[in-house]
C-alpha cells in the first residue's frame, strides 16, 4: 500500500493519522489516502506533502484549490507535493499566484498522467496589465510537466503563459516547465509565452524551459535581467516557438544563458522588427547552439540571431527563409562584444534592401568566424546603395577562417 503522505508536521497541537477513502492513485497501485485529524478541534485536513489528484474524483477539483492548499502551508513537508492531473481534462479557471517556497527535498510537481492530450488550463484575461495564467512569485523547485495553458475565448487580454517574478528581494530558482503547449493571442503586443523577470536586489536563476510549444505569442520566451541583476544559468532547450511577431527568445542581461536545439518561426507579414534569438549586455555570456530560426515575409528588419554586447559561443545554428520588403535582413549580427561563431548555416534569405549573412560590428573584439556556410542570398533592390554580403566583418582581432560563401545575387551590386 502506497500512502499518499510523505511526512508529518506537528503544528499547533497533536495530530493523529487516520486512514480514509481507499482511493487508488492514478499509477494503478492500491493506496489509502491519509489525512490529519486535529485532536483539539476534531477537524480533518490534508497533510503538508504527498500524492494528490487534481480533477473530478480527486482530492482537489481545480488548480486553484491545489495552489491555495500549497500556499497555505507553514512548511512543505519532506518529499513535497506531487499533483497528478489526468490526460484530457480541461480547467476553465484563473489560478492564483504561487507564493509558497519549496525546496530540493520538498519540491512541488504538477504532472500529467495517463494517455491522451495534455490537460489544459484555459484562463480569461481582463483589462489589467501583466496578467499570467500561472504566476510563480519568488519560489523555488516547482515543476509543471505536461500542463498546457491557453488564453480562453475571444479576449486577447492574457499577457503571459508562465510568469516567473521576484518579490521582496527573493527570486525564482530551480523551477522547470516542460512538455507543454502555451497558446496566446499574437494581437496582444505584450503577450509572452514565458516571462522570467529579475527585480531589484534579486535575480532569477537556473530555471529550465524544455520541450515547450509556444503558439501565436508576440514574444515567445523573454528572460529579462537588468544592469544590476543578471539572470543566471537559465536554460531554453528543445522548444518550438511558432508565429512569433517580435522575438523568439529574448534574453538580455543574462549570465551563463543556454539556448539550444530550439525551432523558432516568425509570423508571416509581421510589421515589427523581428529577432529570432536575441541576447547580450556588458557582462552577459551565452551559449547559442543547434537552433533553427525560420523566417517569413515581413515589412520590417529581420535578424536570425542578434548579440548586442557581451561574450558568446554561437555554433551549429541554421537561419533561413527570411524575406523582407523595405527593410534589411541579417542572418547573424554580433553588434558588440566578443564571440566564436562556428558551423552555422545561413541560407535562402532575400530583401529589396541590404542583405548580410553574418555581420560583425566595428566595436567588437576577438570574434572568430569558423566553418560557417552562407549561401543563396538574393538582393532584389534597384538602388545601388543596397548590397548583398556573405560576411561583413569589422572589429579588432577578428578571425575569419574556413567559411564557405556562395550563390549570392543582387540587382544593385554585391
Instruction: Tell me the fraction of residues in β-strands, as a range.
Output: over 45%
Strand elements, count: 40
Note the main sheet: 25 strands, parallel
Q: In terms of structural class, how would the helical and strand content be classed?
A: mainly beta
Mean pLDDT: 89
Question: What overall form do the CA principal axes indicate?
Answer: elongated
Using the CA coordinates, give the radius of gyration: 25 Å
Count of helical regions: 1
The unreliable regions are: 1-44
Quaternary arrangement of the chains shown? single chain
Helix content: under 10%
Tell me the span between the first and last alpha carbons. Answer: 74 Å
Short structural summary:
This protein is mostly beta strands and 414 residues long. It has one helix and 40 strands. It has a 25-stranded parallel β-sheet that branches.
How does this structure look, described?
- The chain is elongated.
- Helix 1 links the parallel strand 4 and strand 5 (about 80-85).
- The protein is built from one helix and 40 strands.
- About 0% of the residues lie in helices and about 45% in strands.
- The protein has a 25-stranded parallel beta sheet that branches. Strands 9-12-14-16-20-24-28-32-35-38 form a ten-stranded parallel beta sheet, with no helix packed on it.
- The chain is an all-beta fold and about 425 residues long.
- The model is unreliable at about 1-45 (pLDDT under 50).
- The longest helix is centred in the N-terminal third of the chain and has 9 residues, at about 65-70.
Amino acid at each position: 500500500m502506497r500512502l499518499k503522505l510523505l511526512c508529518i508536521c506537528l503544528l499547533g497541537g497533536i495530530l493523529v493519522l487516520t486512514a480514509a477513502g481507499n482511493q487508488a492513485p492514478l499509477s494503478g497501485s492500491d493506496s489509502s489516502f491519509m489525512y490529519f485529524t486535529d485532536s483539539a478541534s476534531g477537524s480533518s485536513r490534508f497533510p503538508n506533502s504527498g500524492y494528490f489528484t487534481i480533477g473530478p474524483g480527486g482530492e482537489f477539483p481545480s488548480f486553484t484549490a491545489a495552489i491555495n492548499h500549497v500556499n497555505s502551508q507553514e512548511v512543505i513537508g519532506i518529499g513535497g507535493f506531487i499533483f497528478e492531473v489526468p490526460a484530457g481534462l480541461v480547467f476553465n479557471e484563473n489560478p492564483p499566484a504561487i507564493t509558497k517556497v519549496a525546496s530540493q527535498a520538498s519540491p512541488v510537481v504538477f504532472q500529467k498522467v495517463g494517455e491522451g492530450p495534455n490537460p489544459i488550463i484555459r484562463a480569461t484575461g481582463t483589462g489589467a496589465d501583466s496578467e499570467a495564467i500561472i504566476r510563480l512569485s519568488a519560489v523555488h523547485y516547482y515543476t509543471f510537466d505536461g500542463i498546457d495553458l491557453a488564453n480562453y475565448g475571444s479576449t486577447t487580454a492574457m499577457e503571459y503563459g508562465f510568469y516567473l517574478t521576484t518579490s521582496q528581494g527573493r527570486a525564482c530558482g530551480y523551477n522547470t516547465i516542460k512538455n507543454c503547449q502555451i497558446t496566446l493571442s499574437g494581437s496582444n503586443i505584450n503577450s509572452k509565452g514565458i516571462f522570467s523577470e529579475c527585480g531589484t536586489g534579486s535575480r532569477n536563476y537556473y530555471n529550465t524551459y524544455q520541450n515547450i510549444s509556444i503558439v501565436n505569442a508576440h514574444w515567445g520566451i523573454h528572460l529579462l535581467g537588468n544592469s544590476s541583476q543578471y539572470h543566471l544559468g537559465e536554460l531554453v532547450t528543445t522548444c518550438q516557438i511558432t508565429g512569433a511577431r517580435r522575438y523568439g527568445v529574448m534574453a538580455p542581461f543574462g549570465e551563463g544563458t543556454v539556448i539550444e536545439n530550439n525551432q523558432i518561426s516568425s509570423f508571416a507579414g509581421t510589421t515589427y522588427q523581428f529577432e529570432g534569438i536575441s541576447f547580450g549586455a556588458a557582462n552577459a555570456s551565452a551559449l547559442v547552439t543547434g537552433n533553427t530560426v525560420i523566417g517569413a515575409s515581413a515589412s520590417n528588419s529581420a535578424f536570425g540571431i542578434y548579440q548586442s554586447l557581451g561574450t558568446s559561443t554561437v555554433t551549429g545554428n541554421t537561419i533561413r527563409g527570411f524575406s523582407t520588403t523595405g527593410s534589411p535582413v541579417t542572418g547573424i549580427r554580433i553588434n558588440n562584444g566578443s564571440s566564436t561563431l562556428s558551423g552555422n548555416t545561413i541560407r535562402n534569405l532575400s530583401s529589396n534592401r541590404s542583405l548580410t549573412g553574418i555581420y560583425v560590428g566595428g566595436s567588437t573584439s576577438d570574434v572568430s568566424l569558423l566553418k560557417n556556410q552562407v549561401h543563396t542570398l538574393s538582393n532584389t533592390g534597384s538602388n545601388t546603395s543596397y548590397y548583398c554580403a556573405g560576411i561583413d566583418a569589422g572589429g579588432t582581432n577578428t578571425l575569419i577562417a574556413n567559411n564557405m560563401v556562395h550563390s549570392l545575387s543582387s540587382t544593385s551590386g554585391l
